[in-house]
Amino acid sequence: MTVDVVCAAPPFLDIVFRGLDRIPPSGEEVLATAVSVVPGAMANVAFALRQLKLDAVVCSRIGTDPAGRLLQELMASAGVPWIGEPTGSTSLSVALPVDGDRAFVTFQADTSIDLHAIAALAPRAVVVNLPLPGPMPGTPWVYAVVGDPQVAILREHGHGSLAGLRTLFLNEREAQDLTGLPDTRDAAAELAAHGCLVIVTRGASGAVAALPGRPGTKSGPPCLAHSKLPAASYFAMNMSPTPDTGPNSVTPGKTTPKRKPPAT
């Protein structure tokens, strides 16, 4: 079996409480108007890539607890393959969206990555969380993402050179928190100076791309959905190097699919 992309990190079971007017303080209960239970994290990335006609799979330990069994069913229903050895627990997030932003409470299960399983899939590319778990076997392209836990680790220990990455994807707040710079363009340029193309998504405001070794940034087109699909669109275009879209360039010219992904 060979694939285009291996998403090498745990998927999450996301429980999303909708219709909240505020985040409750300690000791108080508020009512949501609806709740959604959906795959998240790397499952969302793999789903978005598959909508762009890339053969993407999730490769991580598979939880055998009730949350893991439900997550397996949801991912199978969404057409996202999940490959890995069994483990006793499953990563889970509770999302509380309010006023266009969200707060999360998260449990993160086993995050170990099976490098031999990745090598057996012979992917063209791997998507991983920073910091990197080690050398990626047998693949020329490594794409990295981060979340709040990864940003905290990187701020404490440093991220070092990013020259081994083809592209780093992160959102505006993550870029600002990781660099300590309040301006998104400055943050993107600072990260790109460490050796790779950096794409910072900005929701409805579009995206900023910073190229290594070049001053300044390029603005991307507006996003068509509040999801990971905009970043996935850049990923898909970056997967096919041409004279105009090689490792050190970005072609932000296509719109994203409007189909809603399974996660928020």
Structure description:
- The chain has 264 residues and is an alpha/beta fold.
- It has one domain: 3-Layer(aba) Sandwich (UDP-N-acetylmuramoyl-L-alanine:D-glutamate ligase), CATH 3.40.1190.
- Helix content is 25%, strand content 27%.
- It contains 7 helices and 15 strands.
- A 9-stranded mixed β-sheet has the order 6-4-1-10-11-12-13-14-15, with helices on both faces. Strands 3-2-8-9 form a 4-stranded mixed β-sheet.
- A hairpin with a 6-residue loop joins strand 14 (207-210) and strand 15.
- Helix 4 packs parallel to helix 5.
- The longest helix has 12 residues, at 66-77.
Task: Report a brief summary of the structure.
Helices cover 25% and strands 27% of the residues. It is α/β, with parallel strands linked by helices.
Query: What's the story with the biggest beta sheet?
Result: 9 strands, mixed
SS element count, helices: 7
> What proportion of the residues is helical, as a percent range?
25-40%
Number of strands: 15
Q: Average the pLDDT over all residues and give the rounded result.
A: 81
| CATH architecture tag | 3-Layer(aba) Sandwich
**Span between N and C termini?**
30 Å
CATH superfamily: Ribokinase
Number of domains: 1
Basic shape: globular
Per the CATH scheme, the topology name is: UDP-N-acetylmuramoyl-L-alanine:D-glutamate ligase
Q: What class would the helix/strand composition place it in?
A: alpha/beta
CATH domain class? Alpha Beta
Task: Enumerate the spans where pLDDT stays under 50 for 5 or more consecutive residues.
Answer: 219-230, 241-264
Oligomer: single chain
